[in-house]
Amino acid sequence: MTGECLSGRSDRPKMIEVVRYSVTVVPSLALDLSVVWLLTHTVGLPMLPAVGLGFVAGGSFNYVVHELWTFHSSARAMSLNRWASYLAAVSSVLGLRILFLYVMDAAAGGQAGSDMQRLLVASGLSFVANYFVSKYLIFRSPRL
To answer: How do residues 22-48 score in pLDDT, each as one tens digit?
Structure first.
């Protein structure tokens, strides 16, 4: 096959979007984890509040990049309503990330590796969830 699905449409635009999303999450994750590391190691903030603040920093970066590049649509412009919707969605995904951290810790009796190792796993799972929330709820194509 030459990149066409059974319906005859090309999968290329979807693949480009997935690649853009993947490229976007790398600096976002770096910002997120850097904030967590700085807050826990220099300020002495406990892990969970630091994770929340790191997630908000990365999420704010993501909103702008997703709106302007990843899920860009000429039929849509940046809006305060979508920003608020994205923040609400990001908050839900943050809840999932914290739940993932809690479950990994509880399942291993507190011996599930270092905090940063668990955070990396939970971050990966939450970024997958965030892709689907972003694509299908926040940045869906406008109906004409």
So the answer is: 888 889 889 989 999 999 999 999 998
Give me 28's structure tokens. 């976002």
Contact 137, 69 (CB under 8 A): no
Residue 36's CB is within 10 A of a number of other CB atoms, namely 25
Query: Is pLDDT above 50 for 125?
Result: yes
d(CA 22, CA 36): 21
Closest CA to 117 of 56, 63, 64, 47: 47
Residues with Cβ within 8 Å of residue 28, at least 6 apart in sequence: 58, 59, 61, 62, 65
Full-model pTM: 0.65
Strand partners, 10: 4
